[in-house]
Amino acid sequence: MLACGGTMENFASMMNDRAAQIGCTSSNFVNSSGCTVEGHYSTARDVAKIAKAAFSNKDIRRLAGLSKYTIPATNLSSAREIESTNLFLEGSDGTDDFFDFVVEKYKGVFGGKTGRTVDGQCTMVNGFNHDGMEVYCVIMGSTLEGRYSDIKTLMDYAKTVICKYTVFKKDTEFGTAKLLGGATNKVKAVAAKEGFINLPEGASASLVETKCIYSDSLIAPIKKGQKIGVIEIYLADDLCGKVDLVAASDIKKGWFLSPFGITNMQTIMMGSALGLFIITVITIFVLRIKNKRRIKAIRRERLMEEARRQLEREEDLQRRGWHF
């Protein structure tokens, strides 16, 4: 906390900023511990959003999924084993200072967080996988034992009411994204993974829509699988999920005209057209020169023929002795 924010107040301010970024609208943090203090509050909806954001971090997700962990010995302490209070990870039927009840392992639970205030109010958020979907359940204002039974009731209920609807499969094509500097000026976009939503009972699949948002200013080279946009999934105009769009193939860096959006093929075509034009101009020029030479040669031959005929007439007159 001190390393990140310097003071409790600064760190709490950072928490509030981050909460706002992930869509929390009914939370205000005054401390980092969660201890009851005036002005410090949140809601079940916001806690679920915070949990989802936290578990998107692979390290937090891995640690939250451990039921036990042994802290290695140091120069000040021997090795110590700590246990998670999320008993759904492995189940617990033992009795200790805190737990004297049975909690069975719950299939699909990948992590969660328990909480307890000084006045005995207990909370819990749990994330679990159901039919390929991540579900988050939150209990607030419960008892130490009640939170486990209550949140299990919520998870059981979620399994009965959540209906997975597959909107599109992995590698489904979603048009092309424009780019500059490549051998081609477009790259085919495909879904990075399956896109699905919870389709409530009675809701029509016709209410489901998708919207593609391609990345701006894509510059080649592009690697296959590189993110080039997102697909937004809507149910009746409500945004329900996002899936990355990735390049379906490699796009190599283009030739000298590629920064202007001109592909290699277009460059070849333009070069061919220019070459054909130049050849045509040269051909016309050469033909004109040849034609001029031919006309001159014809004129010269006509003059020579006329001169020859005139000479023959003069010779004929001399032979006849005619002097007129």
Layout of helices and strands:
Blueprint: H1 2-5, H2 8-21, H3 44-55, H4 58-64, E1 68-71, E2 80-83, E3 109-116, E4 122-130, E5 133-142, H5 146-161, E6 164-168, E7 173-180, E8 186-191, E9 195-198, E10 208-214, E11 218-219, E12 227-235, E13 238-247, H6 264-320
Parallel strand pairs: 7-11
Antiparallel strand pairs: 1-2, 3-4, 4-5, 6-9, 7-8, 8-13, 10-12, 12-13
Describe what this molecule looks like in 3D.
- This protein has helices spanning 2-5, 8-21, 44-55, 58-64, 146-161, 264-320, and strands at residues 68-71, 80-83, 109-116, 122-130, 133-142, 164-168, 173-180, 186-191, 195-198, 208-214, 218-219, 227-235, 238-247.
- The chain is an alpha+beta fold and 324 residues long.
- The radius of gyration is 41 Å and the shape is rod-shaped.
The main β sheet shows up as: 6 strands, mixed
Strand runs, count: 13
| Secondary structure tally, helices | 6
> Structural class, please?
alpha+beta
Mean of residue pLDDT? 88
Task: Summarize this entry quickly.
This protein has 324 residues and is α+β, with helices and mostly antiparallel strands.
